[in-house]
Amino acid sequence: xxxHLVPRAVRGAITVDLDTAEEIRSATAELLVTLMEMNDLSxxxxxxxxxxxxxxxxxxxxxxxxxxxxxxxxxxxCAQEIDVEGALPRCIRVLLHVLVPADRALRPAYIGEAHALxxxxxxxxxxxxxxxxxx
Length: 135
Description:
By secondary structure, this protein is an alpha/beta fold. The protein is built from two helices and seven strands, in the order βαβαβββββ.
């Protein structure tokens, strides 16, 4: 019997060192791979992705990093994060909408300097990545 699937969402964020197209694509891919691995998700589970980037990131759309992973069928939207004084710079955030079994717990991931956004979460420990996640 197939498990009952429900719509859920999981968040994550990552920072880049430089505003370059390659850094934005690479960091976005790292963030998505981390979220997918941590939450045992496949691309087929993702119903949409909403990305934001801080105003200092203008070289590339984060969605291009997702498309490079094969996410061509996933609806995606990119927007600019609110420009709040003192906010974490060079940050890409994502809100993934997924269909998962009702009893599945989802864990957000905040990688690199983005860990400062959620210091209350424990560190991410995946193949050399560092940041935070919720258990």
